[in-house]
Amino acid sequence: RSGFVSIIGRPNVGKSTLMNRFVGEKISIVTPKAQTTRHRIAGILSSENYQIVFIDTPGILDPAYKLQEKMMEAMHKAVQDADVVLYLTDITESPDEVKSRISSLQLQVPCMLAINKIDLLKSAAGEDKEQTVESFLQAYQAFPAVVKILPISAQEGWGLDQLLAALIEYL
Ligand code: GDP
Ligand code: MG
Q: What is the ipTM metric for this complex?
């Protein structure tokens, strides 16, 4: 199997970190500062059974400025090229906001949702980590715009095997 996966989402949710994890090299710039990826950046993950081209994007912005408008264009182009769109969010973004952003994109291809930075719940929620993850997933119940929802930690590499397997199914 082979195909294109475009990674989209708000700035700073971990898109570049995730892509670097998948393709195994630092080709996408990761910073705590938002909007450091101005263009689309592609990385390839190959194995015996599949080849995936990941497209990292500048992220979904509110295009109030000319540069941001350009960056939104890059995002829309990446989405058009994709076999699957991977919408990345993190534990700080509200599910309602994520839902309305995904809906407004009116995607023509399957969209998978990954909730990143689950590792931060450890410190925030202590013993209740599982429950907090559960409540995030609950918030997306009956949201037909996404084909699957997966909690991950791009930084710690947690949940990425499951995410990869899920993506491959849609190539
Ligand atoms: P992008 O703007 O969506 O491409 O986000 P980046 O990949 O540049 O990451 C933004 C910040 O979030 C960086 O400081 C990353 O180190 C951090 N980050 C990314 N993934 C994780 C994660 O799984 N857990 C935590 N705690 N931080 C993360
Ligand atoms: Mg980035």
A: 0.99
Q: Does 11 count as an annotated binding residue?
A: yes
Instruction: Report whether residue 116 contacts ligand 1, using a CB cutoff of 6 Å.
Output: yes
Q: Identify the CATH number of the domain in which residue 18 sits.
A: 3.40.50.300
Ligand 1, atom 26, residue with closest C-alpha:
117
118 annotated as a binding-site residue:
yes
Whether the CB-CB separation of 100 and 135 falls below 8 Å is answered with no
Tell which residue, 42, 38, 31, 40, has the closest CA to residue 67: 38
Distance of CA 87 to the CA centre of its chain: 4
**Structural domain of residue 40, as residue ranges?**
2-168
Number of domains in the chain: 1
Blockwise average pLDDT, block size 10, the chain, 171 residues = 92 91 69 56 84 82 68 76 93 93 90 95 66 85 93 96 96 93
